[in-house]
Every structure is written in structure tokens, then in C-alpha cells.
Design brief:
The protein is mainly α. It is built from one helix and no strands.
């Protein structure tokens, strides 16, 4: 049991520590920021401003 635990633990530990950090951190930090920020900042401004500017004119 001791040999299998020592052999399996090190293999699973480094893999889970390295892969998840590099795969999860960048995705959650880069994707949401670039996808959510621009959409909420660009879409509403371009969609709301023209509507408020065009509606009063008519």
C-alpha cells in the first residue's frame, strides 16, 4: 500500500496542481474579462446612446 500510494500520489498531485492552474486561471481571467467587459461596455454604450440621441430628435 505504501509503495502504490507514494507512486500514485506524486503523479496525480503535480498533474492536478500544474494543469488546473495554467488551464483554469488564464481562462477565467482572460476570457471573462475580454468577453464580458467589452460586451457590457461597448454594446450598451453604442446601443443606448444612439437610441437616446435618435429618439428625442424624432
Amino acid at each position: 500500500m505504501a509503495t502504490t500510494k507514494k507512486a500514485a500520489a506524486p503523479k496525480k498531485a503535480p498533474a492536478k496542481k500544474a494543469a488546473p492552474k495554467k488551464a483554469a486561471a488564464p481562462k477565467k481571467a482572460a476570457a471573462p474579462k475580454k468577453a464580458a467587459a467589452p460586451k457590457k461596455a461597448a454594446a450598451p454604450k453604442k446601443a443606448a446612446a444612439p437610441k437616446k440621441a435618435a429618439a428625442p430628435k424624432k
